[in-house]
Amino acid sequence: MKVVVARHAGVCYGVERALKLAEEAVAVGGEVSTLGPLIHNPQAVLALQAKGVSVASSLEDVSSGTLVIRSHGVDPAVIAAAQDKGLEVIDATCPFVSAAHHCAADLSESGYAVVIVGESDHPEVEGILAHAGGVATIVQHAEDLPARLPGRRIGVVVQTTQPPSVLQEVVDALLPRVSELRVCNTICSATAKRQESAAELAESVDVIVVVGGHNSGNTTRLAEICFARNPRTHHVETADELDVAWFEGARVVGVTAGASTPDVQIRGVIDAVEALSSDA
Which residues are tagged catalytic? Predict the structure, then answer.
């Protein structure tokens, strides 16, 4: 079997930056915690824990030391509360997520009723909502828009990992219903590139493997995009999950990975697929 890797795959700048900031905090010394998993990749989080970075489920669980804010961002009130407790705060929020925060705040302060395109239970969307003043309409698709909009002046901000097509369908649905529409396209360019290259690869291979955390929204979306084009799509976190039956009769195997997937995990899957070929 031939293995082809997507043109754009694996860790993005925001994830790489967050990991670097956490590791630098450990190097300085003292207790280091993250508020929730730093990134949505269980193996990377375990590797950080082995280096001394603990994962706190809430601010109440952190009494001293350094608190690293996860790449998905948080409610600004959380940072203020952490500083009030005397914690040193390192903000590892992805710059693209920070841009979404600023857009949400600006839209709200400018008098627009805010619509957030994204997953309501995702930590990034929770942070965007907080920056919008805690008041916004959250939709995943155009059909989720309410029959009665919260106003005639609508401002749209989007979760950074959403597909551009989803943002477009929401905008198209809003246009005929409002007197003014302001859209902040806060989709991360790295996410868009990974989605585009994954779609291209899925159409040109017999089997495609998507590598990344099962709890990662951007990796799950890559798998959905690939599956829509190639039913022989498989989402795994590590090479241990590969099943030899998936590759029966396959001549070309594609590999792509989410923006929170370190290179070592991608390499592990590639090596394992190549080993299956040599064993056949």
Answer: 124
176 and 194 part of one domain: no
Whether the CB-CB separation of 114 and 157 falls below 8 Å is answered with yes
In the listed set 45, 64, 94, which residue is the last one of a domain according to the structure?
Answer: 94
**pLDDT tens digit string along 33-49?**
999 999 999 999 999 99
Query: Residue 255 has which token pair?
Result: 């590999």
User: 276 φ, ψ to 5°?
Assistant: -60, -40
* Structural domain count, the chain: 3
Task: Give the tokens for residue 19.
Answer: 């990991």
Could you tell me if 79 and 157 lie in one domain? no
Domain membership of residue 65 as a residue range: 13-94
- DSSP secondary-structure letter at 13? H
CA pair distance 73, 125, nearest whole angstrom: 9
97 is written with which tokens?
């997520």
**CATH number, position 230:** 3.40.1010.20
* Domain co-membership, 183 together with 216: no
Q: Is 75 exposed, middle or buried (0-12, 13-18, 19+ CB in 10 A)?
A: middle
Q: Measuring CA to CA, how many Å separate 41 from each of 38, 55, 214, 238, 259?
A: 8, 13, 8, 11, 10
Please, what is the Cα angle at 34 between 56 and 116, to 5 degrees? 100
- Could you tell me which of 251, 256, 249, 248 has the C-alpha nearest to residue 229? 256
Residue at which a domain ends, from 94, 127, 161: 94
Assigned token pair, 103: 């857009």
pLDDT tens per residue across span 229-263:
999 999 999 999 999 999 999 999 999 999 999 99
